[in-house]
Amino acid sequence: MRYAYLGPQGTFTEAALRTIPGAAEAEHVPLSTVPAVLDALRSDKVDGAVVALENSVEGSVPTTLDELATGDQLQIVAEIHIPVSFALLVRPGTSFGDIKTVSSHPIAQPQCRRWLAEHVPDAEWRAATSNAEAAQHVADGHYDAALAGSFAAARYGLDVLAEDIHDVADAVTRFIELRRPCAPPPPTGMDRTTVVAFIGEDHPGALLEILNEFSMRGINLTLIQSRPTGAGLGSYLFWMDFEGHVQDARVGEALMGLRRVVADVRYLGSYARADQVRPEIRRGTHDTDFTEAAAWLTSIRSGHA
Amino acid sequence: MRYAYLGPQGTFTEAALRTIPGAAEAEHVPLSTVPAVLDALRSDKVDGAVVALENSVEGSVPTTLDELATGDQLQIVAEIHIPVSFALLVRPGTSFGDIKTVSSHPIAQPQCRRWLAEHVPDAEWRAATSNAEAAQHVADGHYDAALAGSFAAARYGLDVLAEDIHDVADAVTRFIELRRPCAPPPPTGMDRTTVVAFIGEDHPGALLEILNEFSMRGINLTLIQSRPTGAGLGSYLFWMDFEGHVQDARVGEALMGLRRVVADVRYLGSYARADQVRPEIRRGTHDTDFTEAAAWLTSIRSGHA
Amino acid sequence: MRYAYLGPQGTFTEAALRTIPGAAEAEHVPLSTVPAVLDALRSDKVDGAVVALENSVEGSVPTTLDELATGDQLQIVAEIHIPVSFALLVRPGTSFGDIKTVSSHPIAQPQCRRWLAEHVPDAEWRAATSNAEAAQHVADGHYDAALAGSFAAARYGLDVLAEDIHDVADAVTRFIELRRPCAPPPPTGMDRTTVVAFIGEDHPGALLEILNEFSMRGINLTLIQSRPTGAGLGSYLFWMDFEGHVQDARVGEALMGLRRVVADVRYLGSYARADQVRPEIRRGTHDTDFTEAAAWLTSIRSGHA
Amino acid sequence: MRYAYLGPQGTFTEAALRTIPGAAEAEHVPLSTVPAVLDALRSDKVDGAVVALENSVEGSVPTTLDELATGDQLQIVAEIHIPVSFALLVRPGTSFGDIKTVSSHPIAQPQCRRWLAEHVPDAEWRAATSNAEAAQHVADGHYDAALAGSFAAARYGLDVLAEDIHDVADAVTRFIELRRPCAPPPPTGMDRTTVVAFIGEDHPGALLEILNEFSMRGINLTLIQSRPTGAGLGSYLFWMDFEGHVQDARVGEALMGLRRVVADVRYLGSYARADQVRPEIRRGTHDTDFTEAAAWLTSIRSGHA
């Protein structure tokens, strides 16, 4: 088993990958961009992939959304939640007063903005392609400090000057494990399903229609994110995560409704929720309600009511 | 073939019955109340029945609605539209100035209210159990004039003093042909379907949910009528006629949705529209759209997307 | 003070009228039809009027609905609930075995159908213009028994052979007290408002839009009744009773929305509920929420946010 | 007049600022982050500010959205659309074959991904804090090429090796001009309004309710973007741009409805659309319809209907 992930070694994505059952025996392949990770999976060079999808402070990761919404189809088979908590890594001997520059991936900076303003108010921030690259820049002497996972310190010969850095308590990053299209893992009763809906032409009421397909079946959305499709301002796709599994009748019905309403819809997987929240199932939307309604329809169509 | 209908002979219902293909060779059984007509069909004493359902001036016929909504299930297999047009029947020799009393079924009076106020302003109106009974009362000398179909004059030895009486132009009475539960007649593309939905307990938003099941599939209602269920003010059933046939995918889906949403639903039939209006079918709601969506769902559930 | 009501004396409507505060000192004017009652009020011949609006077994009274929906505007200022309970009135000496015919107003018959089938299974039913007229016919010897209020027995010299007759327990008739247009009685917190909405042209989604105006403001409907407008099958008005008073902000907003959505709307009054049910007011729909929102809008329009 | 903008000099934001009437005579203050630009305006150090809001390829700019949704309130008074078109800047003498590294702001890279893969397939991309900084890095010899506006070449002593670079035709970046809270510019009939709605507690149906407030008044959304509020996965704010001006009655009504439905709403301004699209105003939602409905409500409340 080979897994691609957004490297280099020492990133939070690698930490997420290590939580997957069986990951210890698998081969880990760090790649430098999200498209490279997904392409490795699409082209059969690896068997699975892990990328970040969403961060409770900064929101969804645009590149992951865009790359999964287009190109050859991939499938989410699991999600992993990792608490947001950075360390400030420095060369041995560096103290707070020495820090003139702090580097990190652009997504890390706003999550530590207030902490930085308080502890290193005069330091300038510098963008890096990853937090691990920022650590490498510190090791090389280009910058004075890096925001990264504390697990990255040893790899780059740096010291941890401060730990557990985050502006917002309980912030979490959500990673996803991807495979090539496959049968979804069996329902657990605490599942999530992800789809991408494309709104064609000028259809301003489409979002209301989409939400109605879910609402009328008592299905709560857990994430909705609009993204431009690249076809001009005003043309969007909607990434939607919602409660339930594609095998649930209410989810299957909502998906068929969605399929008919929008220009296109891409199914990205059903998988167990990392937060193990069990949804409330509204009256009339249990699997047995759908089975009973279908049997009734058959009977009235045949005249044996 | 035996047909029961709301008699006596000489009513508009008999006129409607005569329009059914093959009615000329069938036996016609006049009965004195709508419940009697329906019970004859339910107990196998006749093979079919004809009753009035709706009148464009006076609205739905409450007894027909109530009797079909409850009791053993029956099925509408056809509808017949008959123009509303009364004659004023009198004993030979009677002139307008002689008329002190006019009798008719209560449903006829409001349809001729303005005409009566203009032509016989001083006459008092008297209720009769049917227009034909009103004619009989005139023949017996109890009343001076009857509102009835002109075809009833000969039967009761009366003269037609005025014809084509109606306050509203183009008014129509809608009759239905009933059978015991059976496979519906095949779709014509210009069909109507009738159901009765029962709202259980206190569910004030139920009507909005019901209408949504139709609206989201582009199905127009042609009649909605609330009726008390007899379980106290505020408890209702809804009689609904809508465009389409139970064999249409969009209708089948709406019916299954309705079945899950409401306390109970009774299917009363799909049949060709007498007015031959062809519905506009909204994008995404053709049979092929449903078939394609179902095939897609099967593919993603199995992993062969 | 003069009140018109649907007579003759001895009807349930008169019983309802007697419950109005001050009615004992007022003059009571029995008239023979609902239009006559309403016209007396419209033409200033009386100061108030009482008519039946709705019956929990038989539903709304079509004539009352139609006559109030059109013609010069009148206003409901109060409602009165009277339990449905008939007496079987006969000439002295008549026993059950003697009864060949039973007469009543057509609305009374279906409310006692099961009782009649059980107690006088062989009697035929005859329509009368009112229950009181039926009693007169019994006194005159035309019929053997009448269904009417027991209070009518003395007036017509009849005996009460059976009392408290009704097929459905707890059935109630709802009467309304009418005035010429006036300021509504002050809100009690347990109020009802009545409007009639006219759907113009072919606007199949109009009912959904109307219900939405109420639903989005948390206002429950307590009665919805469709009636043909007389302009052909498929053209309807909707009589709607709902929780709340025209002075309530949420009701005022819903009414303005309704006014903009439909072809026409007629306000028929706000008045205290006879059943004294206090509505649950949804979050965000109290008067103070509307006042606060309006103040905020003023501030952002002026730039003083 | 002093304007702050996201610098350094030579960015697309500066190009947008230069299009504002009167900008030529104003002082331009480049600052290094969006928060710094907004804080300069909030603290009265400048009179106006220009930042990027949305890009038709990459979507909304998260920092701009987050910084305007929180902190002291600011107001959008105009929008500016600038076509997306980059130049590849190199040191004099550099040819395509020499390019091993290309640097740019992270937002520029995905907009040129395909062009880069085709023209410099072997070059690695490096993040810079701005495109202008990337140009500086090229001038300093750290990197070989920068993606930036061609207007930046002269400032950094670089050559334009390629121009008009963009993967998607007709892509546009949308900039906004900000002021401290003020009366909005007068309606033009082709306006846009921006608000941010905060969904409190667990209210899964809130988005549907919000969209309904707009939909029922015929107001089309032109952008909807969800952003986490930082209070855990699942807690969101919605940035919404829609057709119309706060002075329009339908917009005012929708905003009041929104105010009552959600936990909080922030008004961010009404301003002329840069694309000069005139909205279709639905029947019943013109200013005169609202005025007429309000007058009618006043009349029925007072009894002078």
Q: What is the string of SSEs of chain A from the N terminus onward?
A: EHEHEEHEEEHEHEHEEEHEEHEH
Rg estimate of chain A, integer Å: 23 Å
Structurally, the number of domains of chain A stands at 3
Would you report the number of β strands of chain A?
Answer: 15
The amount of helix of chain A comes to 25-40%
Any guess at the CATH architecture of the largest domain in chain A? 2-Layer Sandwich
In oligomeric terms, what are we looking at? homotetramer
pLDDT below 50 for ≥5 consecutive residues: which ranges of chain A? none
- Termini of chain A, distance in Å? 55 Å
Number of helices of chain A: 9
Domain ACT (chains A, B, C, D): 195-270
Site (Essential for prephenate dehydratase activity) (chains A, B, C, D): 173
Enzyme class (chains A, B, C, D): lyase
Domain Prephenate dehydratase (chains A, B, C, D): 2-180
